[in-house]
Structure formats: C-alpha cells, structure tokens
Amino acid sequence: MNQRSGTSTRRGADVKSVEAGADGGEKTGDLDRGDTPPASGRIRRFRLPREASMLPALVVVLVLGSVLSPSFLTTQNFETVLKITSVVGLLAVGQTLVILSGGGGIDLSVGAVAAVSAVVGALYAGYGLTAFIVAAVLTGSFIGLINGLGVSRAFLQPFIVTLATMTIARGAAFYISGGTPLIVSMPDLNAISTSKLWFVPVPAVLFIGTAVVVHIVLRYTVWGREIYAVGGTEEAAYLSGVPVARRRLLVYIASGFLAGVAGVLLASFTATADANAASGYELSAIAAVVVGGTALAGGQGSIVGTMIGVLVIAFTGNILNLMNVDPFMQLLINGLIVLVAVSLEAQRRSGSSRGRLRGLAIMYGTIGVGALIMFTVLAPS
Amino acid sequence: MPPAEQPFLSLRNVSKRYANVHALSGVDLDLYAGRCHALVGENGAGKSTLIKVIGGLVQPDEGTLTVGGAEQHLRNPAQALKLGISVVPQELIFVPGMSVAENIALGEFDGRGGFVDSRAIVQRSQEVLARLGVHVDCRAPLGTMSPAVQQLAMIARGLSRQARLLVLDEPTAALSDQEAEHLFAVLEDLKSEGIGILYVSHRMDELRRLAEDMTVLRDGQLIESRIGEGVPDDNRLIELMVGRSVERFFSADRHRSAGDKEVLRVEGLNREGVLSDINFSLHAGEILALTGLMGSGRTEVLRCLVGVDRADTMKLFVDGEETRIRSPRDAQRVGMMLVPEERKAQGLVEMMSVADNICLPNLRKWAKGPFVLDRSRRADVTDMVAKVGLQASKYGAAAGSLSGGNQQKVVIGKSLIGGTRILLLDEPTRGIDAAVKHEIYALLGSLADEGCAVLVVSSEMLEVLGLADRVIVLRSGAVAGTLSGEQATERNILELAMLGSGADSGPSDNAPLGEQIEGSRT
Questions:
Q1: Which residues are B313's β-sheet partners?
Q2: What is the pLDDT of residues B212-238, one digit of tens each?
Q3: B1 in a structural domain
Q4: How far apart are the first and last CA of chain B?
Q5: Which residues on A lie below 8 Å from B141 (Cβ)?
Q6: Are residues B22 and B99 in the same domain?
Q7: Residues B496-505: pLDDT tens digits?
C-alpha cells in the first residue's frame, strides 16, 4: 500500500490502472457524488473484511478436524487447545502491534523475555502472587523499553536490536536462575492454569481478553489509529503532527509487557521458572501473525487476523496430534502452513502476475522434490 | 497594491546549505492573509527547500521566521500546523488504507478518553470537504479516491486544523483541466475567507489567475519579489528565471561530427500515464541531453530503454536493427549501460573496492574457471581507473569511502568496461562539487570523441547547455521539442518545458518556436 501510494499519486493517469478499490473497485472520479449513498456498504457484504481473509482457512481446519477425529469437536479438546496456545497467542498479540507499527518492526526477543520474566518473578514468589506477577511484568516491560528506545530514538534496525536483547534476556535468565529451573511452589500461581472462568480456562481468558482489548485499542482509539498511520505511511503521520517516535516506543513496551504476562502463564503451567523456556516462541508468534495476514511491511493487518492465525496453527497441530501423526512431521507441516499462507496473501494483495505464479509453481515443485527425496532415500529405516 | 496590514508570515535572510550546496541564501519572503503568493523558479532554484523551511521540515542555518509578528523556531511539522501553516507537498503523502476522514483528522483526532469519535471526524471531514465542494463517502479509504479528491482532502486536512496559510506545491500536476478549474474556484473562496496561499507551479496561466504577489528564486537566491503587482507576462517571467551565464564545459570545437552514424533509434515509446509517443535517435559520438521539468518523464525514458520498466509499446533499433530489451542484462549485451540516478543505492556496492565495483558487470570476462583473480583483471581495470580519471591509488579503496564525484567516476567506469557503446546517464553530477563536475563533463566529452553515444538526463540547465550537442525537451511525458546548436538556449528550453509547443506560449521575441523544433520524429 505504501509503495502504491507513491506511484499512484505521482501522476493522475497512473492511478486509474493501479487501484482496485477496497470498496469494490469503482474509482470516485467525480468530485461530487451528490446524494448517492455510500456504495461501500452494499458491496462489502460480498467480501470478507480484509482482516478475516484467512477465516476460510480456519473453517476448513475446523471442518477437517471434526471429520477426521471424533474427539475433535469436544469442549475438553477446545479447552486444551486454547490453553496450550495462550502463551504463543499473547506473544503474537504483542508481535502484531510491533509489526503493524512499520519501519521494519519486529520483536525477536519475546520468547526470551517471557523466560526471564518468569525467572525474575520467581525470585519474588515469597511475597505472594501479586509480587510475582508485578515483577515479571515489569521485567518484560523494561526489556520492551530498551527495544523501543533502540528503535524509536536511536533509529536502530528492529531486527538487530531485538535479536540482541533476545540473547541478553536469555543470558540474564540463565545468570539469575543459576542455570537450573527454579521450582515455584505457589498454589495460587498454579491455580491460574487449572481454574476456569465459567467453562473457559483462565489462560485462554487472558489471551482472548487481551486480544479483544488490543483489538479495540487498535480499532477505536487515537493511539491505535495513529499506529496504523505510522506503519502505513510514516511520513504522512509525521507531516500530520503524529509523534511517531513516541507511538513506536509504546508499541515495543506493550510487546514486552505481554511477554511478561506470557512468562507468568508459563510458570503457572509448569510450576517452574526455566531459563530455557519459550525458546523459539518468538518465531511461532511471528508465524501466527503472518498467517493472519498482517503485512511485515506494517500498517496492514489486525488482531482478528492474528487470532485466526494462532488458531489455524493451534488446531492443525491438535488435529495431527489426535490422528497420532509423528510430532516431527507436525513441525514440518507448520512450516508449510506459513509458506502457503504467505503465498495466498501475496497473491491476494498484489494480484497474481504470471511471473509470481511461475515462481510459486517452481518453489512448491522443488519442495515436492525435496519431500520425495526425504521420504525415499533419506527415510529412517 | 500592497496590503496595509503586516504579513502573516515573514522570512528574513533565510539561508540553508546542504553539504557544499547553497540551497537558499539570504531569502526574504512575505506572505499575507487572504492573498495568493506565487513562488517561481527553475528546478533546483530552492523552492522546495523554502517550502520545507516554512512547513517546519527543515531548519534554516540562518535567518528568521516570523508568524503573526512573533519569531518562531519550527522544529517539526507539528509546530507549523499549530501555527496554522499547512503544507501540501507535490507528491501527496497520506495513508492509502485509511479512510478519507481519518486521513483528514490524522494527528488531531477528535476523541473522548482516548477513543476516536469516528462520527465526529466523519462529520468534521464532510463539513470541510463540503466547503471545498467535495461530496464523497468519508469512510471509504482515501487510496481508492481520484487524485483530485486526494488533493482536496490534503487541503481539507489543513483547513480542518484552522490553517491560516496553505502551501501548495504543483497542486494541479495530477488533475484534469476541469478538476483544476474546481481547485481554482476553491482557492479563490479560501482567499476571500482570509487564508493565505503560497502557490508553487510551473504553469504560468495558473499563477497569473490566482496570484497577487510573486517571488522568483534562482540558484537559491531571491531574484525579484513583487507584492501586489501580480505575475508578469511570460517573457518577463522567463527572463527573471534565466539569465545565468553559461560556462562552456569544454572547447566548442569538440563539436561535433555527430550525426552520420545512428546507433540507437527509439520509435513510439509509450507507457500509460507516463510517456506518450516518444521518438528520437542517438548517434555515435554525440551527446544528447534529455531534459524537462520534474515529472516530465525524463528518468522513465531511460528506465524503459534498459528494460527496468516495461514500455507499453516501443520499437528499439540498435545499429538499425530492431532489438528487444527486457532487462538491463539485455541492454548490456548490445553495449548499452545506464548510470543510474541514485549512485549509492543503484550504482555502487559501497563495501566493495573500486576494482571490484568496476568489474562487477563483467566478472566472467576475467574468470579463470570459477575464480576471478586480481592478476588477470588488473591491467584492464587499471586502464579503466585511469580513463575515468581516478588516481591509481584508489584501485583497492572501498567505493563507499570515496567522495561523491569519485564514486560517480567508478560507476561510469563500471558501465564502460564491457565495451559499452551507448552510455545513458541519469543526473550524472547531482550532489557533486563543481571541480569534479567539470572532470566528469570532460570525461563524457572525450567518450563522445571516441565514438561513444552519450544520452544524459539532467535537470540542471547549465549542464544541459554546456554539455549537449542536441537537447530533447520533454513535457508531460511527450517530446515538446528538439533543439540543437544555436537554438539550444536556456530560454528556448524553458519555453518548451513550461509552455509546450508554440500554441499557448504567447508572443515571443525569438523566432517562432515551430521553426526551432526539428520535429519530434528525427
């Protein structure tokens, strides 16, 4: 979109060919549309809102699940899936904020931050649950602050800054915990993971609740709209007087904060604070965001999309589990899902060019060749 | 008649330097409420820098800016907006995916407790847009609107924040005549409401219709300021804009046996919305300049020639033979290379040495099996380093460590080394200091003498005049005329670039333009 505005605004004639409008295509060429009611409402009904572009995929997964396994469509199963996925889900919500804010925004540190937050929290376990949570969440926010300062004030590359803080946080977690997992014997901490609100497990409530709140913030608050503007066309935001640096700073703090919350959940699941925990979760979170249709370039995407991304990945894993598929194979399939999702999204966003279609065909063909080799020559006997 | 009251905004003695270029030196400007002030000058005269100073995007090195009688130091656009200064840049900058209303309200959302009151912003936008005679659905994304609506929405953004001064940079560039008419009516209304307008345009008729006051800049200096006297006739205006002495870059007797052997001919180059029916030919030993105002399609022609952009239609003849060029690689194969505009981004790998950069396009030539050994290429590269006028000691230096001028020499060397016969250069001396500029001009001259065909895209008048044997002037993506020899004067070029072919140019004390134009089809 960003690029598009660049080309489309330069010369008038360009625009007509470039934009297939989001509200159905017809350009509003006339200055005066008179009293015609907005055409968008009528047309939009036939199109999914862009944030839900992956909704069909989720439906397919759910239908497949219920066909393939009798135990899929049970409350019990759904509870388990939501509970397990809540940690990555929280991280993905924070990640969405960061990616939306543009400027190459990404937060690689979240997994390590969750671990160090849990470890720091565990040090204060003696003062009760509140102390544990406050310590963990402050730790997360603090590292988020470092990330945010590096990106928004020192203008460093988000990838590099958060790669560094990822290593630093992991190191800090090992240093503080002395390398061994800290046992946290707090009944009320464990209760977080075992108790339910009505029939929904508390971790899932936390995850979904956070998602709803962040969705509302992004959708309806000044802060949220300005995030979209900063991520969409930074210069436009700056020229309009939006404090770009301050908005970006807060986004990284929020991501760190949510990683802290995720750390609390992790500790409550395992009753330990392990410096090794949550490694690789940042990548799962990014995968979920991408599958959910949020553009890595920023400015486009939504929490709804991320929720769908998280759930697609979670339920696919769940189905494979229920069908007793080799867990190693599950990993492989997760990777494929990401690839397919970004392929579809790229097709949808920039229209299918013949070059891209050929490239996709070649890429998937090559994957097929790899699979063939793996399942024949390299197959473990 | 100059107004009695004091100006809304005044600049006094404003200067701004970039590296070694004086973008503005000692400029004064007075902008009054309820009046339109035309800002005129050639490309590079300092207009955009002046706008940026007023909009708070650039801080001047010297001078004062006074708004409503109080001196101000604008550090960012937000401060300028607060004072009622709203700048609408030529390239509209907005968030295409956000609604019209959100784009208008951006930076100052109506809200309650942090929540955007979307009904209020839609209403506010609708009201402001109605004032501008625009009735569209403010909830639809601005990116889906026509350029005219986008333009007016950007003006609305200023108005909705109580702008007292609107700065418009070429606002009609993307508008049809009818839409432009509408804009003028709107601007007249705004003037009568007491809003001041600073209007930058190359279109004289527009300026004449709208402006009471006018300022002409040339090379960053104030040439003339006319308060209350309107815009003078074309002749006088062009006289004010030009009038620099043209230095000869090399002895005129290089001239120029050009013309006998055509190496490149372009027929019917079209690219929708950018270029229409461009025809020209390029001869061995000739330096041909392609010039025109910003957005006239100069760079686009080059990009189509080397296959970076795909032309809708184009017939290309190399040595009289029709050739298809789909990528820079194809272009290289027929001996045609582009020296791109953005040296650092498109021309060089800054980390690599001068030698590595120079051989980059032709590594295979020196390869022994898979290896490129320094000793096998050394002689060739050393020759090239000398030819483009780099010191031999620079051979192994990192390209990024060189000055801009020397970097450009590296790029030219890189473009030449594969036996290039057709050299295309886009703004070859931008950001290069004067001394090295002349070295590059001399280099291009000697290349032409050796029989290389050189096509230079340039927006610098002196460069075009001093360098070229022949000048093609583009206007709005079409050839406005071709000038050669004596006809290639600053005045003629400007007239073609700004007024097009004769028809709307009014009386001229030169020969009729029609006689100067060789015709677009050579």
A1: B270
A2: 999 998 888 888 888 888 888 777 777
A3: no
A4: 50
A5: 21-23
A6: yes
A7: 887 765 434 3
Peptide linkage before B256 cis (omega within 30 of 0): yes
Does A229 contact B95 at a Cβ distance shorter than 8 Å?
yes
C-beta of residue A101 within 8 angstroms of C-beta of residue A289: no
A189 with A286: CB under 8 angstroms? no
pLDDT tens, position by position, A192-203: 888 888 888 999
Nearest to B92 among A9, A31, A241 (CB): A9
Q: Are both B43 and B99 inside the same structural domain?
A: yes
Of B81, B116, B272, the CB nearest to A221: B116
Cβ neighbours around B25 below 10 Å, total? 18
Contact with chain B for residue A44, Cβ under 8 A: no
Alpha carbon of B153: minimum distance to chain A alpha carbons (Å): 11
Question: How far is residue B192 from each of residues A120, B178, B215, measured CA to CA in Å?
Answer: 66, 22, 21
Q: Nearest 5°: phi and psi at B156?
A: -60, -35
* Alpha carbon of B222: minimum distance to chain A alpha carbons (Å): 27
CB B10 within 8 A of CB B196: no
Give the C-alpha separation, B195 to B187, whole Å: 9
> Rounded to whole angstroms, how far apart are CA atoms B357 and A325?
53
The angle that helices A187-194 and A202-220 make with each other, rounded to 10 degrees, is 70
Number of residues that make up chain A? 381
| pLDDT for the residue numbered B116 | 85
The answer to whether residues B193 and B281 belong to one domain is no
Partner-chain contact B81 A240, CB within 8 Å: yes
Select from 3.30.420, 1.10.10, 3.90.320, 1.10.3470 the CATH code of A55-60+70-327: 1.10.3470
Q: Do A5 and B96 touch (CB under 8 A)?
A: yes
Distance CA A366, CA B148 (A): 48
User: Nearest CA of chain B to the CA of A319: how many Å?
Assistant: 36
| Chain A residue at shortest CA distance from B135 | A32
Least CB–CB distance from A9: residue in B133, B134, B147: B147
Among partner residues B82, B94, B174, which is closest to A236 by beta-carbon distance?
B94
- Specify the 3-state DSSP secondary structure of A224: helix
Residue B415 and residue B444 in one domain: no
* B139/A40 Cβ within 8 A: yes
Residue B4 lies in a domain: no
Residues counted in chain B: 522
The amino acid that residue B217 corresponds to is L
Strand partners, B291: B473
Q: Kindly report the number of other CB atoms within 10 A of residue B504's CB atom.
A: 11
User: Tell me: the pLDDT tens digits for A15-46?
Assistant: 333 333 333 334 444 454 444 444 444 443 44
Cβ contacts of A299 within 8 Å, gap of 6 or more: A1, A2, A100, A102, A228, A229, A230, A231, A232, A233, B95, B97
Sequence-distant (6+) residues with CB within 8 A of B489 are: B465, B483
Q: Which residues contact B145 (CB under 8 A, 6 or more apart)?
A: A27, A28, B100, B136, B153
Residue B206, CA atoms < 13 Å, CB-side half-sphere: 28
Asked if B272 and A13 come within 8 Å (Cβ–Cβ), the reply is yes
Mean pLDDT across chain B, nearest whole number?
82
Contact of A295 with chain B, judged by CB distance below 8 Å, is answered with no
Q: How far apart are CA B410 and CA A9, in angstroms?
A: 34
Interior/surface letters B85-95, b for 16+ CB within 10 angstroms, e for the rest: bbbbbbebbbb
Range of the domain at B494: 246-335+421-522
The interface predicted TM-score (ipTM) is 0.72
Q: Compute the count of residue pairs across chains A and B with CB atoms less than 8 Å apart.
A: 176
List of chain A residues whose C-beta atoms are within 8 Å of the C-beta of residue B295:
10-11
Q: What is the mean pLDDT of chain A?
A: 85
